[in-house]
Each structure stands twice: as structure tokens, then as C-alpha cells.
Design goal:
Strand content: 35-45%
CATH topology: Nuclear Transport Factor 2, Chain: A
Oligomer: single chain
Largest sheet: 6 strands, mixed
Order of helices and strands: HHEEHEEEE
Shape: globular
Number of helices: 3
Helix content: 25-40%
Length: 134
């Protein structure tokens, strides 16, 4: 296998993690969403929200899906996928969420997100996530 094929395969695998997260959000499935995060992942959201660990991410998303984000869908469009070595990646994306009935992402919910992923024996996982208003 050539280096280019290897990079293409890893790029595709990283993007598949993001697609799986979007699908889990669309299903409002906090367990499936959190399963893509590392055990000790960190999440920093706009407004200063900080979460440490997969279980904390799961609890937060379960509450959000049961409450204000019920029926919402995620928008996440990678703008840059940078492979770092063989087992890490940094992704910058345009992100946000749509509430039920919305077709266009409102400007006040547009975010730029940075994802740091690593590959272990069980595949690619989100190690860190941060977003801020775009």
C-alpha cells in the first residue's frame, strides 16, 4: 500500500467518526454519541462549558437530548482534516445544530469546531473537542 493510500484510508476513517457522531445526534442517542469519545476526552463548548471524560459527555448529551436538543440534528462539515503522524488527526469543521423544522443553520448557532482524534486498538476516538462562535 502506498503512503497516499494509507493517508486516504486514515482520512476516511476520521471522517467516518464524525459521520457516526452526526448520526448518533440525529437519533438523539447519547450512548452512541459518547462511544466515539476516549475515556478521558475533554470537551470545551462556547460559554465556558467543560466536560472531562466519556461518561460526563454521555450524561450531558443525554440531558440535552431529553431537553432542549430533543429532535435536533447536528451540522458538522469538515473544512480541514490534518493527519498528524499515523495515529492522530486534527479536524476543523463548520458546525452547529438544527432544531426540529429548521433547514438552515441560524447565524447565532454557527460554530467553528476543533476535533483532536487518536487511533488506538479499538479504532479512532475523539480525544478533545472545542467549539466557539464563528
Amino acid at each position: 500500500m502506498t503512503q497516499t493510500e494509507t493517508n486516504q484510508t486514515r482520512d476516511r476513517a476520521v471522517r467516518e467518526v464524525l459521520h457516526a457522531l452526526v448520526a448518533a445526534w440525529a437519533a438523539n442517542d447519547a450512548d452512541a454519541f459518547a462511544a466515539r469519545y476516549a475515556d478521558d476526552a475533554t470537551v470545551v463548548l462556547a460559554g465556558g462549558v467543560f466536560h472531562q471524560g466519556r461518561e460526563e459527555v454521555r450524561r450531558y448529551m443525554a440531558g440535552a437530548f431529553a431537553g432542549p436538543l430533543r429532535g435536533s440534528t447536528s451540522v458538522d462539515e469538515p473544512e480541514s482534516v490534518r493527519l498528524v503522524g499515523h495515529d492522530a488527526a486534527v479536524v476543523v469543521s463548520r458546525s452547529g445544530f438544527l432544531l426540529p423544522g429548521e433547514e438552515t443553520l441560524p447565524a447565532d448557532r454557527l460554530r467553528r469546531a476543533t476535533w483532536v482524534l487518536s487511533r488506538g486498538d479499538d479504532g479512532w476516538r475523539v480525544e478533545a473537542y472545542h467549539n466557539c462562535p464563528a
